[in-house]
Amino acid sequence: MARVWAYGIAAAGLALAGCGPMALPEAEELCAEAVAPKAPLSGEGRMGIASDGNFHSDIDLTFNLGAAGDPGVAYANCVRARAGQAPSRPYYDVGGRR
Question: Does this model's pTM top 0.85?
Answer without folding.
Answer: no
